[in-house]
Amino acid sequence: MTLKIKKMKRIARKRETRICLSGQLRSEEVGQVKAEVGRAGARVALDLGEVDLVDIDADRFHNVCESAGVSILNCSPYIREWMLQERSQAKDPPEGL
């Protein structure tokens, strides 16, 4: 299964664009998702509720998004765990230094 992107604008108390992803998010699609996030404006959320597979580049992209203020919603526990592991590895100095 390939990646499917659905963009939803929600108006509640604050305007937010929710980008719903489904399928498999791999490095080949990260650029497309990044472009959608850039077009969405200031308040953006990535909804990963229907994402069933990611690769390491997609996982790193999710961390970059979060650090830039993009909300990651409905993230499966295994993807969240990978995100946490990547963050901790990025903070650890390389061995041998």
Name the beta content range: 25-35%
Radius of gyration: 14 Å
Q: Helical amount among residues, as a percent range? A: 40-55%
- Second CATH tier, the architecture: 2-Layer Sandwich
The largest pleated sheet is described as: 4 strands, mixed
**Main sheet: strand order:** 1-2-3-4
Number of helices, where a helix is a run of at least 4 consecutive DSSP H or I residues: 3
Distance between the termini: 42 Å
Mean residue pLDDT: 86
**Approximate shape:** globular
The string of secondary-structure elements, in order, is EEHEHEH
Structural class: alpha/beta
Instruction: Tell me the name of the CATH homologous superfamily.
Output: STAS domain
Per CATH, what is the topology? Answer: Transcription Regulator spoIIAA
- The total tally of domains equals 1
CATH class: Alpha Beta
User: What is the number of strand segments?
Assistant: 4
Provide the low-confidence segments as ranges. Answer: none
Q: Can you describe what's shown?
A:
The protein is α/β, with parallel strands linked by helices. The chain has a single domain, classed as STAS domain (Transcription Regulator spoIIAA, 2-Layer Sandwich), CATH 3.30.750.24. It is 42% helix and 34% strand. It is built from 3 helices and 4 strands; from the N terminus they run E-E-H-E-H-E-H. The protein has helices spanning 27-40, 56-67, 77-91; strands at 4-11, 15-25, 44-54, 71-73. A 4-stranded mixed sheet has the order 1-2-3-4. Helix 2 (56-67) links the parallel strand 3 and strand 4 (71-73). The relative contact order is 0.17. The mean pLDDT is 86.
